[in-house]
Amino acid sequence: MLDRIEQIARNLEPRLIEIRRHLHAHPELSGEEYQTAAYVAGVLSSCGLHVRESVGKTGVVGELNGRDGSGYLGIRTDMDALPIQERTNLEYASRCEGVMHACGHDVHTTVGLGTAMVLAQLGEDLPGAVRFLFQPAEEIAQGARWMVEDGAMEGVDALLGLHVFPTIPGGSVGIRYGALTAAADDLEIIITGESGHGARPHEAIDAIWIASQVIVTLQQAISRTQNPLRPVVLTIGQISGGRAPNVIADQVKLVGTVRSLHPETHAALPTWIEDIVANVCRTYGAGYEVNYRRVVPSVQNDTRLTQILESAAREAWGGDRVQILTEPSLGAEDFSVYLDRTPGVMFRLGVAHPSQKNYPLHHPKFEVDESSILTGVVILAYTAYKYWTAGYDTP
Ligand code: NI
User: Fold this and answer.
1) Model confidence at 157: pLDDT above 80
2) If we measure between CA atoms, which residue out of 23, 7, 22, 5 comes closest to residue 120?
3) Is the pTM above the cut of 0.85?
4) CB atoms within 10 A of CB 49
5) pLDDT at 391
6) How far is the CA of 362 from the centre of ligand 1 (A)?
7) What is the distance of C-alpha 70 from the center of its chain?
8) Which end of the chain is more exposed for a tag (fewer CB within 10 A), N or C?
């Protein structure tokens, strides 16, 4: 079966590269993937999939029925681009001013389509049913929730996903057991003091100075009170307050992001942060407000599915093109939202060019090695086949 999948995928490769270039030239921002969704739906329909549009706003779902009548294996790819002005010299560079596929979601969409085309061509030999989720708005961490709320995961027993990675060579993949990405939460702290003359601090409550104490205390408390083997990163990225050089500020707003990997740590963070803010503010007589918003949980790869994925990748491309990743990333990915109720695994698809400078994700000169498309399609299609034939037991 592997040979057959690879042969079909190789025959499709020129068409897939065309598709990817078309998507790359026509990027759309999160929640505005109208043309992309219509294009995806068109390709899926032409391959004989049962297609539903406007699932999760601008999302698309395509289904293939297998021989047996059990639940679906889900394959999720994201479709949105970023508000970045492209600065590559590619002939198929973005034609949309200020919008660019700088996170490789054009490749993800193409790999999803390619996998659908390959599995559709297996016809009666496809052992089980597969549902493709083409998700909008990953970059704003909303699309997965929209899709789930619209029922896209109903009947899905396991989920596969991928993300391109510019530090892994094109043709190779990175596979991680356990935590792949971090939980990401938004944090807003408002500190309220009392205004006064800059020369008479004892008559005022200086919200700027207290805010600086809050920041320092939080950073020190991470190193002294959090388990160092369970990382927490807290970044205050924005701070605002104050009116004039000689007026003591009565209010300061701090806005930041909080990343963590361990579910228990993640659960405890809001209370932990609020206690620290409360104690510092109480000491100096300031008022406070802490607004903590959970955005996405950590992607925790399911062990059994990861094993199936790893063996499929090794069989398909040989062991030296499969890297087992020893470290997770503190980046975030809303793939985790689907995993609330369904086990899943996401892998990293290498896209680094062997012979040119590789820019990071979200960079205006980000480019990919297009050979990665074939690599990704074969791995996903063969993993899907093995999922059905290796007998995955849902927990
Ligand atoms: Ni991305």
Assistant:
1) yes
2) 5
3) yes
4) 23
5) 66
6) 8
7) 28
8) C
Active-site residue, selected from the candidate residues 6, 78, 106, 138: 138
341: pLDDT confidence band, cut at 50, 70 and 90? Answer: confident
Two tokens, residue 161: 């996903």
Does the pLDDT of residue 99 top 70, yes or no? Answer: yes
Task: Find the catalytic residue in 6, 80, 333, 369.
Answer: 80
**Domain spans of the chain, in order of start:** 2-179+299-389, 183-296
393 is catalytic: no
Q: Domain 183-296 maps to which CATH number in 3.30.70.360, 3.40.1190.20, 3.90.370.10, 3.40.640.10?
A: 3.30.70.360
At 192, the amino acid letter reads T
Residue 252 CA to ligand 1 centre (angstroms): 33
The 3-state DSSP class for residue 199 equals coil
Determine the CATH number of domain 2-179+299-389: 3.40.630.10
Residue 138: active-site member: yes
Residue 97 CA to ligand 1 center (angstroms) comes to 20
